[in-house]
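Exercise 7. Given the encoded structure of a 445-residue chain, write a plausible sequence.
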């Protein structure tokens, strides 16, 4: 039995040693990850349109390369080339290096083109409009390198009227006024790398719009002549300039300095004028305007300032058209009334052939319908304001109505009169009973 126990102990000891040995050998060592270095990338931009874009990646031993970029660009070359570059290839390119299936982080390089843009200081639109006498700023865009940084470039501008400039952003005008000769297309190129690389020309077309002409007008009174004058701005040749006037009462003219004879109050208002430069494809100027007020004469009638009636009361007189009128209503000297109302018989007196003096001073008479119609034409048909002017007819309105006897239309019971309606802005000749009392205004023979 003792021998058997010893054998069993030996076997157990061998088994224990064998188990422990196997357990120790099952331990798995830690795995160290593989890190692939990225390749630094760069390119030959800015690139002229149509020339070759060259991409470069630094050498990484044992690596392959994977490029991606704009316009669905893909390449496995270390240094790929795009033979005919266009703007579609502008932008960000990335390259990764690959070793044993493991890719590096991406490295970026930015590609720009040599193309520039040209603009003017009118919201950078294709066609710019400027006014003569002002300044015009031309602008060329910057050239950027592969780091998106501005490259120092030489700029060369050419344009109308023998214009040249080596500034990137030149100005025309200032001390030398901008004129119509500056209109046209301007071109600019950018040059880099010591003259080895030149951009394609960029252009901007500029239209020079003439400034508004200067307008003047002589003071005019009813019945006189209104003289209008337009003076073009500097830089506009008279031989190339057309004129277009508009104004009140349907006035139009194509004359530079038009005149309106026998002016009436209807011509009071705003006159406008613009010029057309016939040598530059009918370019219109800015429109100018001037307000003209047609007044009544302040100088009486051919030197006559006033007239006396039969009672010794004097009245100022004024010229309206070719007529000479009292500027206030005639007083009734046949009664003790202090107002200026007359029946038709009291105003006109015995019937006779017009002009009829009636109650008017010597050398003056009551108007007939034809004379009132001339007055209406001179003051301005439908122009109640003209009849209210203190320097003109200066009508008297009672409850917004004015009424003046005419010697026309007597049929024994009625007679015509001038009707002035402030409320309705109406001017007309009507008839009414001769027994009514209304106003009288006298007209010089």
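Solution.
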């Amino acid at each position: 039995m003792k021998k058997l126990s010893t054998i069993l102990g030996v076997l157990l000891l061998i088994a224990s040693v064998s188990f422990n040995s196997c357990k120790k050998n099952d331990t798995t060592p830690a795995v160290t990850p593989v890190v692939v270095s990225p390749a630094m990338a760069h390119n030959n931009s800015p690139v002229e349109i149509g020339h070759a874009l060259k991409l470069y990646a630094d050498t990484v031993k044992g690596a392959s390369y994977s490029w991606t970029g704009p316009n669905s660009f893909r390449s496995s070359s270390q240094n790929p080339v795009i033979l005919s570059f266009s703007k579609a290839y502008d932008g960000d390119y990335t390259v990764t290096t690959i070793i044993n299936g493991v890719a590096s982080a991406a490295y970026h390089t930015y590609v720009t083109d040599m193309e520039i843009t040209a603009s003017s200081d009118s919201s950078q639109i294709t066609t710019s409009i400027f006014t003569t006498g002002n300044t015009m700023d031309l602008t060329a865009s910057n050239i950027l390198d592969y780091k998106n940084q501005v490259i120092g470039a030489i700029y060369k501008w050419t344009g109308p009227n023998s214009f040249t400039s080596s500034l990137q952003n030149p100005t025309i005008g200032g001390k030398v006024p901008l004129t119509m000769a500056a209109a046209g297309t301007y071109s600019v190129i950018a040059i880099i790398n010591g003259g080895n690389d030149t951009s394609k020309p960029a252009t901007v077309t500029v239209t020079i719009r003439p400034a508004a002409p200067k307008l003047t007008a002589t003071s005019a009174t009813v019945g006189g002549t209104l003289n209008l004058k337009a003076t073009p701005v500097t830089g506009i040749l008279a031989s190339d300039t057309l004129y277009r006037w508009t104004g009140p009462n349907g006035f139009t003219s194509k004359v530079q300095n038009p005149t309106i004879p026998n002016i009436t109050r209807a011509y009071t208002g705003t006159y406008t004028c613009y010029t057309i430069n016939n040598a530059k494809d009918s370019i219109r100027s800015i429109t100018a305007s001037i307000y003209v007020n047609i007044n009544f004469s302040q100088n009486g009638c051919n030197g006559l300032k006033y007239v006396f009636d039969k009672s010794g009361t004097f009245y100022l007189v004024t010229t309206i058209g070719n007529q000479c009128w009292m500027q206030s209503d005639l007083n009734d000297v046949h009664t003790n009334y202090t107002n200026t109302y007359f029946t038709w018989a009291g105003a006109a007196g015995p019937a006779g052939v017009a002009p009829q003096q009636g109650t008017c001073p010597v050398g003056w008479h009551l108007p007939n319908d034809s004379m009132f119609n001339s007055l209406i034409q001179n003051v301005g048909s439908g122009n109640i304001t003209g009849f209210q002017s203190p320097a003109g007819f200066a009508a008297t309105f009672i409850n917004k109505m004015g009424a003046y006897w005419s010697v026309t239309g007597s049929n024994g019971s009625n007679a015509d009169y001038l009707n002035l309606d402030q409320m309705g802005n109406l001017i007309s000749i009507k008839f009414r009973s001769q027994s009514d009392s209304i106003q009288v205004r006298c007209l010089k023979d």
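Remark. The longest strand covers residues 91-99. Students should compare their own answers with the one above.
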